[in-house]
Amino acid sequence: MLRRFSKKNRNPPDGAASSTNDNERKYKKLVKKFLEFITSPVWSIPIASFIEGQSVVFDRAQMETEVYMEIHKEYSQLIDTLIECFCEDVGTTPAELIDAIKTINQQDISHHYKVSYYRTARSVRRRSVSGRPK
């Protein structure tokens, strides 16, 4: 009896809650894809290359704020371009991505990183154990 009651409460007849759940699932899926994207080489390689290429400009003896502002502008453009490409690839808009990130619970995001870290650590441990001489 309790199962039937809980199932009835999960699926209300008006359909409003189900569309909310569909949006929530869609947002979670979008945020998950975005989190996977920002941990991928497609994201990290251009950023690392940019930082390495521009790092020589930052010298403690020099304080060229105009140059720093120009580098910041270029970096912002790089990030915008990467995000726009991601959105185009998954068939969404940057505005929808921002809405999804805002609505997703921060615990879900931290959970994703914990799971990702666990999988990485586990694979590293497996490689180190299997690579030991017997």
Automatic annotation (TrEMBL):
- A cellular component annotation (GO) from this entry: cilium
- BART domain sequence ranges: 28-108
> Does Cell cycle appear among the keywords?
no
* Compartments in which it is found: Cell projection, Cilium; Cytoplasm
Q: Which InterPro entries match?
A: BART_dom, BART_sf, CFAP36
Q: Which domain of life is it from?
A: Eukaryota
**Region annotation Disordered: residue ranges?**
1-22
- What Pfam family is a match, any one? ARL2_Bind_BART
Basic residues bias: where? Answer: 1-10
Q: Which UniProt keywords apply?
A: Cell projection, Cilium, Coiled coil, Cytoplasm
The family line of this record is: Belongs to the CFAP36 family.
Q: Which PANTHER family match?
A: CILIA- AND FLAGELLA-ASSOCIATED PROTEIN 36 (PTHR21532:SF0), PHOSPHODIESTERASE HL (PTHR21532)
Q: What is this protein called?
A: Cilia- and flagella-associated protein 36
Q: What organism is this sequence from?
A: Caenorhabditis briggsae
